[in-house]
From TrEMBL:
It comes from Lentzea xinjiangensis. The keyword Signal applies. It comes from the Bacteria. This is Uncharacterized protein. The lineage of its organism: Bacteria, Bacillati, Actinomycetota, Actinomycetes, Pseudonocardiales. Keywords: Signal. Residues 1-23 form the signal peptide.
Length: 137
C-alpha cells in the first residue's frame, strides 16, 4: 500500500509540473505623449498634454520627464501624478513639468512617460512612451 501511495504521489507531481502555469492576463493600459507642449512662466515649466487609458477597476499613476538641450546644457524636470482615472476609456491629462535646472526654450525636447497600473488582487503592468516633442509659447 505504501509503494502504491508513493507511485501515486510521484505521478501527481509529474502531471502538475507538465501542465502550463495559469497565465495572468495583462492589464489593459496605454499612454500617449502629445507632439507639442506649451512653455509656461518664461520657460520655468512646460505643460505636456497626455492621453492615458487603464482598465476599469484598476488604479494608475503617471511619471513624466522632459529634457532639452539649451545651448549645450540640459534643462530637465519631471512630475509624478499619484492617481489617474481608470475607466477603460482614454482621458486627457495635462502634466505641468517644472525645470530643475535651467529654463526650457522654444524648440525640440525629449519626453518620457511611464504609466504604472495595478489591478487587484495581484495584476500590474507598466506602459511607456518616449518621443521628441516641440515646445511652443
Amino acid at each position: 500500500m505504501r509503494a502504491f501511495s508513493t507511485v501515486l504521489l510521484a505521478a501527481a507531481a509529474l502531471v502538475a509540473t507538465a501542465l502550463p502555469a495559469a497565465a495572468t492576463p495583462p492589464v489593459e493600459a496605454a499612454v500617449a505623449v502629445a507632439v507639442q507642449a506649451k512653455l509656461e512662466a518664461r520657460g520655468v515649466a512646460v505643460t505636456v498634454p497626455m492621453r492615458v487609458m487603464c482598465q476599469n477597476g484598476a488604479s494608475g499613476s503617471l511619471w513624466v520627464q522632459v529634457t532639452q538641450n539649451v545651448r549645450g546644457e540640459l534643462a530637465t524636470g519631471d512630475k509624478y501624478i499619484a492617481s489617474v482615472p481608470c475607466t477603460g476609456e482614454f482621458h486627457k491629462v495635462d502634466v505641468t513639468v517644472v525645470s530643475r535646472t535651467k529654463a526650457f526654450r522654444q524648440g525640440v525636447a525629449f519626453a518620457s512617460a511611464s504609466l504604472n497600473v495595478y489591478l487587484p488582487p495581484n495584476n500590474s503592468s507598466v506602459v511607456e512612451e518616449q518621443r521628441e516633442m516641440t515646445l511652443v509659447r
